[in-house]
């Protein structure tokens, strides 16, 4: 794409073409070129008013070539080659068709005159607020979440404003759980490019592909190879929905400029037979490449972080983002549970990248608070995988990232027996397998905890270890259990659940959504110019989020603040992360701002309509 400054004109023998204007452009206009364009337009309109037929108007005087078939599209047969000329014209239909600049009925009278929009829009002029209300009305007409997802993806600038103002309603639409279904059906709902696809076919040409992306000032890249999408497995090229969704949240919730975000999918095939047979599948129709290629699945995720974390600015949201948001919830929950963090006993169901990533950050927090060695802190944390409790007798057969959690204990075959043996105060599900927190499991937790803390983190909703209803209902007083005066569970999940009324009390489940952390975390890295991510930054982000939970939230049983305050929350997280970056000496934007919270707020992208010259 040719990027042109305001007031620049192209001449291609087709009359004078006025090029798209950027809302942040500089300069004072086109001078003589502006007048020449206006004269050409006025001459064309005068001919039309004087009775000349449209086809009789001199094509040399018409803006954008008028009705003449200057590109040869109409005269060409199907097997003839046509040159795909593409010029962004800051007037008329071209402006209305550009989702980055189109304001619909919100164009002012002055803008309609300046950009040749008269007659192309109804005469009414509305405010941006009314435009938003109208679009939300349209979105709410759809009953199917995937239809709402498709409607929001077509909005561009207005999309970010709608998401900011209606975050609790739209977040489940543009991110989990709906984004999972969107990825599964991405081929059949694909409409326009939203990211960069790099496949094995382009091996050796990656730099050329990167140059094809229209933006040059990129600050955040989200990349996937589609092998492990939520709890849905290998979705290949159709995993693009995840980078697109995450970057939408970086922009709307964290204030990173959308033009500075780049979604990338690396397509090396898929082992999903259903997709390979799907006529609408958009990726390479071959089985996933193996060998020298390092995929992003859990068996390589830790290796890649270790390999590149010390030399590049990298962040794995599945590992580090999930860990940070879970730690924040646990820190906040202590105000309900009482006691210290180091006195808790944690039991995980699931020992993949998410589970072990969370466990490691919890151990770091225990080590920080107690000044104990990390190896000692890990002994407060136990993990159960598909073969049972991870213990030292299994060490030789374990993958490298599970070995630090192999403690001395007799073998235990399943989760229920592990709960009875370990007696955890906190139960965390990261297994990706639904319905694994059974009634017996929840009742066992409630038998020795007055307020059992239960986090069912697996996404999407169908893969959640239990529902909010089940956690609240099964953890109530049961005469058959040894603990007679139990309160309800403190529950949070990865996907959203509706409030649950039980015995006249409304219980509001929290959502341990990574969206609390990664948008503000990314903003903190950008605004400080950090060159590396350190674990201390993740702890700082968790502490900032935990501090945002109010007494009013606690009274409802919540361990996370409402998402309606997410921009404010993101600013505080960004400030904490940036402060830690400056403290560790990895920040490059100097000098350090005096008030990092105010600076974070000033750096945030605001998706309001701009006024056009």
Q: Could you characterize the architecture of this molecule?
A:
- With 613 residues, the protein is of the alpha/beta class.
- 39% of the residues lie in helices and 9% in strands.
- It is built from 24 helices and 14 strands.
- The chain has helices spanning 32-49, 92-96, 109-114, 128-141, 145-153, 157-165, 167-174, 178-184, 186-189, 206-212, 241-252, 273-276, 298-308, 317-337, 353-370, 374-377, 415-422, 439-448, 468-474, 518-528, 535-547, 551-555, 566-584, 596-603, and strands at residues 9-11, 16-18, 196-199, 220-224, 261-267, 346-349, 381-385, 388-389, 426-429, 453-456, 490-493, 500-502, 505-507, 510-511.
- It has a 7-stranded mixed beta sheet with strand order 8-7-6-9-10-11-14, sandwiched between helices.
- The longest helix has 21 residues, at 317-337.
- The two termini are 23 Å apart.
- The model is unreliable at 1-76 and 479-487 (pLDDT under 50).
- Residues 319-582 form the Malic enzyme NAD-binding domain.
């Amino acid at each position: 794409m040719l990027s042109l400054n305001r007031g620049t004109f192209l001449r291609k023998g087709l009359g004078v073409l006025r090029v798209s204007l950027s809302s942040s452009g500089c300069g004072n206009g086109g001078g003589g070129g502006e007048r020449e364009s206006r004269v050409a337009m006025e001459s064309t309109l005068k001919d039309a008013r004087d009775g000349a037929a449209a086809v009789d108007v001199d094509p040399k005087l018409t803006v954008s070539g008028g009705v003449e078939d200057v590109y040869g599209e109409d005269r060409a047969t199907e097997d003839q080659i046509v040159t795909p000329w593409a010029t962004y014209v800051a007037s008329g239909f071209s402006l209305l068709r550009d989702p980055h600049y189109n304001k619909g009925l919100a164009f002012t009278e002055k803008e309609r005159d300046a950009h040749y929009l008269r007659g192309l829009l109804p005469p009414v002029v509305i405010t941006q607020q009314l435009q938003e209300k109208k679009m939300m009305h349209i979105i709410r007409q759809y009953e199917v979440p995937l239809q709402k997802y498709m409607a929001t993806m077509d909005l561009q600038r207005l999309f970010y404003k709608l998401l900011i103002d209606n975050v609790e309603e739209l977040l489940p639409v543009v991110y989990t759980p709906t984004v999972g279904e969107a990825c599964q059906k991405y081929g059949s709902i694909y409409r326009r490019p939203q990211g960069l696809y790099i496949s094995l076919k382009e091996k050796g040409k990656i730099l050329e592909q990167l140059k094809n992306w229209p933006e040059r000032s990129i600050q955040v890249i989200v990349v996937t190879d589609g092998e492990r999408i939520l709890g849905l497995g290998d979705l290949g090229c159709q995993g693009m929905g995840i980078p697109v969704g995450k970057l939408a949240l970086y922009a709307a919730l964290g204030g990173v400029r959308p033009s500075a975000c780049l979604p990338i999918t690396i397509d090396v095939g898929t082992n999903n037979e259903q997709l390979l047979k799907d006529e609408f599948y958009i990726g390479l129709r071959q089985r996933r490449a193996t060998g020298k290629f390092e995929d992003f699945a859990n068996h390589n995720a830790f290796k890649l972080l270790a390999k590149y974390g010390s030399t590049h600015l990298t962040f794995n949201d599945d590992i580090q983002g999930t860990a940070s948001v879970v730690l924040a919830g646990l820190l906040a929950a202590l105000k309900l549970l009482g006691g210290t963090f180091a006195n808790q006993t944690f039991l995980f169901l699931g020992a993949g990248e998410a589970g072990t990533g969370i466990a490691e950050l919890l151990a770091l927090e225990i080590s920080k608070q107690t000044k104990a060695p990390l190896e000692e802190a890990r002994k407060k944390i136990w993990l159960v995988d598909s073969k049972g409790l991870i213990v030292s007798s299994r060490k030789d057969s374990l993958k490298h990232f599970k070995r630090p959690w192999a403690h001395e204990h007799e073998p235990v075959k399943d989760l229920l027996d592990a709960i009875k043996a370990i007696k955890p105060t906190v139960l965390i599900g990261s297994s990706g397998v639904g319905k694994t927190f059974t009634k017996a499991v929840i009742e066992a937790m409630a038998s020795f905890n007055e307020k059992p803390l239960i986090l069912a983190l697996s996404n999407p909703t169908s893969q959640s270890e239990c529902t909010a209803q089940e956690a609240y209902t099964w953890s109530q007083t049961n005469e058959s259990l040894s603990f007679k005066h139990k309160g309800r569970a403190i529950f949070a999940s990865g996907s959203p659940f509706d409030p649950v009324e039980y015995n006249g009390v409304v219980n509001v489940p929290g959502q341990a959504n990574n969206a609390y952390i990664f948008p503000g975390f990314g903003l903190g890295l950008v605004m400080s110019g950090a060159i590396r991510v350190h674990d201390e930054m993740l702890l700082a982000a968790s502490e900032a989020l935990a501090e945002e939970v109010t007494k009013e939230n606690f009274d409802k049983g919540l361990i996370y603040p409402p998402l309606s305050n997410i921009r404010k929350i993101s600013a505080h997280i960004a400030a904490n992360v940036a402060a830690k970056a400056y403290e560790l000496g990895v920040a490059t934007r100097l000098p350090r701002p005096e008030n990092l919270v105010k600076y974070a707020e000033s750096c945030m992208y605001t998706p309001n309509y701009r006024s056009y010259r």
